[in-house]
Amino acid sequence: MTWPPPDGWPNRAASRQVRCAPHRWHLQTAGTGKTVLLLHGAGASTSSWRDVFPALAQTFRVAAVDLPGHGFTSLGPPASSGLDGMAANLHALCVQEDLVPDAIVGHSAGAAIALRLCEVAERKPGAVVGLNAALGKFDGLAGVLFPVIAKGLAAVPFTASVFSALAGRRRQVAALLGSTGSAVDDAALDSYLPLVRDPDHVKGALTMMAQWRLDGLLSRLDQIDVPTLFLAGAYDRTVPPRVSQSAAAAVPGAQVEILPGLGHLAHEEAPDEIAGRIAAFISAV
At the fourth CATH level, which superfamily is domain 12-139+212-284? Predict the structure, then answer.
């Protein structure tokens, strides 16, 4: 997507562009106090935190960032879109911008990046919150084929453009969001439409999926020594609650809370509730 964000983009006044190799990042910052880093999931952007961001900024210094190739962050070398590459580059960005987090909140795939950051950071965060954390593997043959298919699609010219043209209609995007188990409003739909319609964003999401490998992190969950809370939407049809429950059982001392009536996009359905749970956990540890 073309810089700068258009008028009306969520929390646009907090946005700035930062160069930190190998990317040009879109970063939003606001508030004072403990530094809380917000990481969105695959295919989303900082806009997914549009209501949680200002709510947390009343108590904390909050930073939200577009992942590589997503939203307004440029896509660097494809290999930098994998779990290890993103964690390393995000750590470098936080150090450069004096935003080393006291707590990290990750949604879906962002939760995996948050836990990987705990491993690579020179100073560990004091808390991690995983919201509908995507910490499961595809079963059987799908686990082998899915990254290969995504890699092939990302490499084929015009794939992203064709997808954007076919899927970037309001009705299709509404159906896509609804399939996650969440009931979202027009504000959510309006924030996702520009993303789905942008071929560069679509390519960034495909590239991330093509590089995505969780086996190493999953095998080390029992070594995570940071207070961790997993929030899981009871209606999540993208990452079912059992995934968070399994992860919580593996991470020493981790807590898990089930969110009645909410789906995969819980932070967009009930931002005040989610912000409150996050703030309470960070303040308590």
Answer: Alpha/Beta hydrolase fold, catalytic domain (3.40.50.1820)
Q: What φ, ψ does residue 30 adopt, rounded to 5°?
A: -165, 155
Measured in Å, how far apart are the chain's first and last C-alpha atoms?
A: 38
pTM: 0.92
Q: Tokens standing for 138?
A: 């595809």
Residues whose CB is less than 8 angstroms from the CB of residue 169 and which lie 6 or more positions away in sequence, other chains included: none
The DSSP letter of residue 73 is S
DSSP letters, 11-71, are: TGGGEEEEEETTEEEEEEEE--SSEEEEE--TT--GGGGTTHHHHHTTTSEEEEEPPTTST
Give backbone dihedrals phi and psi of 146, rounded to 5 degrees, phi first: -60, -50
pLDDT digits (tens, 9 = 90+) for 3-46: 999 999 999 999 999 999 999 999 999 999 999 999 999 999 99
Answer yes or no: are the C-beta atoms of 240 and 247 closer than 8 Å: no
For residue 160, the surrounding DSSP H or E stretch is helix 159-167
Between CA 17 and CA 12 the distance in angstroms is: 11
Taking the C-alpha atoms of 212, 131, 100 and 45 in order, what is their torsion angle to the nearest 10 degrees?
A: 70
Q: 53: which 2 tokens? A: 């961001």
- The confidence score (pLDDT) of residue 140 equals 39
Confidence of residue 168 (pLDDT cuts 50, 70, 90): low
104-143 residue pLDDT tens? 999 999 999 999 999 999 999 999 999 999 998 644 333 4
Measured between alpha carbons, how far is 60 from 4 in angstroms, rounded to an integer?
25
Annotated domain spans of the chain:
12-139+212-284
